[in-house]
Specification:
19 helices, alpha+beta, two-stranded antiparallel ribbon, 12 strands, homodimer, 603 residues
């Protein structure tokens, strides 16, 4: 058996019971699926991960993807994984039957991707980006584009990428300058793109880049950005693949995720790079951002997965490693006693329980967001679809951020559990620690997600998103209030929900005064505050289901399993939720210390 | 000029003005020093660091120290650095004139070590451990041991180490099993030691190991541990150096500090390893721990140094990198504006100010602790010495922990400032991020330091240490209350001091009931709580001196310099100090969730 890297019981408990997958499976689009078939699919994915992902995880770190003579050299498993994922239908799982997809719920595909990411977070990105690029073509591309590119992408023969970032623009997409010039048979593309994940690898038959560029004469800023398909190789009229003047000019060597290549691409060095417009001109950013919810959920999911894998590794170590002794009632240790396992030291238990609440809380958040995504697109009732879309919009910046930020802290705790060994390359924790550190940066940094949460999502439709989310949280609180053992925690969460209202009542007036700088200056603090409460809600919800299972004597899982969930909820409410008291104090402090074009503060 | 890695102005302001080095220089032992000579020494150290440390920092990471055919291969600069440090008197700086030392204050030597550690944290450990090993021999060793070993160590020709950890014992020193057997001419040593920093390198003429071992028949536990000098090579009667059967059997490859070798040593494989007892039998741990305050301050100092260097690197980047635009009063960006520098984004300012308060606060803590160390050994009045010793004891676990833990968070923020570039090996932040992660583990993990703080230091002499420290904090509060602009912050800190009393009044009764497990179960949370308040005190103190300088129109530094210190204090009091509200809430929560030999919580 492979080393334990994922807790399948918890995943299934959250998926089927806590988030009630059945409500998703009930939608017409998913008529062919039931829990049994989903279970088979997830078990097959776990088996696939044991064989094709986990065994290559450490060697991909030891021998990083790298640039050599105009090419990117990746681990040979990349090609094998892409093809096998294609064969298993993983690349196409979300898509309609008619384009060769499996028409599976996002929630289920997310669970499967999560399993793979716990096993090896360097590989799934190749599939994820190919899937994302194909999705853009399917949704917005012409029939011809679909026919030319999608089938080869879904088999894993061709890779796909998203090309947004440019050297001079960074996170600021309004400053993109890659140029598309109208030509007889489409557009000619020229420009530079950096930080392109999965941007090239020698074994790929072709790579299909989805590129943001500016058509000559387009308006400045984000309103002038269009989306193009720009393949590495293009087909000639007789069907041959020839070079499309897309050049890999270098790569970025990184501290972690070393097996997942990050490239610098140059388009049109020889003025022979052709691009095909996707959808309408100047709508590129809109299209890209319609896919961005998915990409952001995926980043949060990857971080949640690493957090879980690190927790499993720390837990296994703590259960095996003897060291020191428990304290006696004199406050001393009795050296004639045998050594105890380190899991018996309260501080180690505290660190492990912290890892547990973050990793399982993050997973619960990922699954819930994916469920909202499904219901927002497939629910029969348009009003319900609208509701779920707003809930999805609310949670998207949080699901990107909480697992990334708190997961990084959690993995660091996990490293600490191993003491000196945690820092050594012979142990896996240090790799998780390095790998996860990119997640608060990917797809919009934590700062940008926080601006999105407070600046767009909280204020959208006059606060309707916050209202809907508060209603969902309120339902859980009311249910928990009816269960004696959970009522105190329900009250605690209810107080936090009120606290969030107080914080918003302090902040919203800045918008009304037009003082957006001040309104948003502590957006990142607000993100930590609000994310913490949301995950508290999810834990209360988990404990309700666990308590019900205990009371009804369910035997799907052991009694210990259910009890551990309730214990973890209590841990969250004792050690995590109180942090919001301090965060609210910060958020409602009237002193303004970060807003000004003022460098003397760093004199 | 080398890249900026240290802020010499802040270092000197803290050293001379805030911590008033003169009170140390006034002690008889330091009669030969004044501020001018200290200044020369620090400037020379900075110059030395520019030339001999910083230029090798990144290459030592790129080409790690490693084990090869029974030897450890290190960067050639290690040998050069050791010899030059010896020539400059850095290894011997603390020691008495009569043994070849410079008889400098610990505070000054710490400042010099700090400068070096900001430049390159991989090299100073070689000197630090050689110094520590020599100190043990000087304090507790026989005349013969002194004559044989110390002179060669102080010139940097011979290295030194501390050999504590063994594979089966980890942090639990009572489980040490390395054996010393009485022989005709001393002892024969046999055993294994792991995680030995600077444990061996090919160029060293000799390495002098200070080894904890158990004399055959000694009592169990820590009472049966003795200290031995065990050189890699021993002298024959005619003065030749021959092998002493100390074998390097491997090394530990690490995530960071790769240039600082970490070795696995085996003593007496051929039963020909001789050791010489230091001081009396069974007193080894006591001797080792008399040096441990110094070692723990040194670890905190190293972490503070990395935190500072990372802050300087982030700040330089933020001042140069244009990206995005400031928000206008409509909440939108105006793309016709030029891009702004990222330092002008409030969230970036928040991250940089966080780095500033942690790095300078940690430095202030290091200098204060070193000052207490000096006064506890050199003050003319024995009562004062006793007072400073208790203050030193109180601060030691905090100075080890605050810079390590908060420094790690600060460096992570520093990496975030650079966005994607922060994760790339072309930029230095990711190296600081990896390097600093060992500091919460070195010389007693954060968990162990926290047990020391709450379990030993808070309770020692019926709480006299806490009382003395509270009195020192009280003095600062009273002074700040007298300055209008600072009075609100003084009141805030005063409230926190009261809060710490409430927390202790909740916790201490557990000791009285003999429930040590419960008393100490949240020791790490208490450490975070108490450390945060201590650094708040230091910031208030800094702001008093800055305010006085502004009022009196001092021109030693610019007005902006002083203003920036006051601004940083306000930042600390807005964003950091409130965290203690939540931590106190956790500490006084009655629920017990981590104490029990109970693994079902992880079912």
């Amino acid at each position: 058996m492979a080393q334990q890297y994922v807790d399948m019981d918890t995943l299934k408990f959250l998926l089927y019971r806590v988030h009630d997958l059945q409500t998703v499976l009930d939608q017409a689009r998913y008529a062919d699926y039931d829990q049994a078939s989903v279970d088979l699919f997830l078990n097959a994915t776990k088996d696939f991960s044991d064989k094709e992902l986990f065994p290559f995880f450490r060697e991909m770190d030891a021998a990083p993807a790298h640039f050599k003579e105009g090419e990117i050299i990746v681990h040979p498993q990349v090609e094998k994984y892409m093809k096998k994922a294609g064969e298993m239908g993983l690349i196409a799982a979300l898509f309609d039957y008619e384009v060769g997809g499996l028409q599976m719920p996002n929630t289920v595909v997310s669970a499967a991707a999560y399993i793979q990411e716990t096993a090896n977070n360097h590989l799934p990105g190749y599939v994820g980006l190919t899937n994302g690029a194909a999705e853009l073509i399917i949704h917005f591309g012409s029939k011809a584009l679909n026919e030319t590119y999608v089938p080869k992408m879904l088999t894993g023969d061709w890779g796909g990428t998203m090309c947004l970032t440019e050297p001079q623009a960074g996170s600021s997409l309004s400053d993109i300058i890659t140029v598309a010039e109208q030509a007889e048979d489409g557009y000619t593309i020229s420009g530079q793109k950096i930080f392109i994940s999965g941007g090239d690898y020698r074994e790929a038959e072709n790579i299909v880049h989805l590129v943001l560029a500016r058509i000559k004469g387009a308006p400045a800023g984000t309103k002038g950005i269009s989306l193009f398909v720009v393949p590495k190789k293009r087909r000639t009229e007789n069907g041959d693949l020839i070079s499309n003047d897309v050049n890999t000019v270098g790569d970025f060597q990184k501290m972690g995720q070393k097996g997942y290549c990050t490239t610098h691409l140059s388009f049109g060095d020889e003025k022979d790079c052709k691009g095909w417009l996707v959808g309408e001109a100047n709508q590129g950013l809109k299209y890209m951002f319609m896919m961005m919810n998915g990409a952001r959920i995926a980043v949060g999911r990857g971080a949640a997965a690493i957090t879980m894998a690190a927790y499993q590794a720390s837990l296994a170590y703590a259960k095996e490693r003897p060291q020191g002794r428990s304290l006696t009632r004199t406050g001393k240790k009795d050296v004639s006693q045998e050594q105890t396992l380190i899991i018996n030291h309260p501080d180690v238990k505290r660190m492990l329980l912290f890892q547990k609440v973050v990793s399982e809380g993050a997973l619960s958040l990922v699954l819930l967001t994916a469920k909202y995504h499904d219901l927002s697109t497939t629910h029969a009732d348009p009003k319900e679809r609208e509701k779920y879309l707003l809930l999805l919009e609310m949670l998207t910046p949080i699901v990107k951020t909480y697992p990334s930020e708190m997961g990084s802290v959690s993995v660091s705790n996990g490293l600490q559990v191993l003491g000196g060994y945690g820092f050594c390359t012979d142990f896996i924790l240090q790799q998780y620690f390095r790998d996860i550190r990119i997640f608060p940066i990917y797809e919009g940094t934590t700062g940008i997600q926080s601006l999105d949460l407070l600046g767009r999502k909280v204020t959208m439709e006059n606060g309707k998103g916050v209202l809907l989310l508060s209603e969902e949280i309120g339902k859980t609180i009311r249910e928990a209030l009816g269960i004696d053992t959970l009522a105190p925690y329900a009250k605690q969460l209810s107080g936090k929900l009120e606290l969030s209202q107080e914080v918003l009542q302090f902040l919203i007036p800045f918008v009304k005064k037009g003082d957006y700088q001040r309104f948003l200056s502590d957006a990142t603090v607000f993100m930590e505050f609000f994310g913490n409460i949301v995950v508290g809600w999810l834990w209360l919800n988990i404990s309700i289901q666990a308590e019900k299972a205990l009371v009804s004597g369910e035997t799907q899982y052991t009694g210990d399993f259910y009890t551990s969930k309730i214990h973890a909820m209590k841990f969250y409410f004792k050690y995590e939720l109180p942090k919001t008291t301090a965060l609210a104090e910060i958020l409602t402090n009237k002193e303004v210390l970060t807003v000004a074009e003022e460098n003397s503060w760093f004199a």
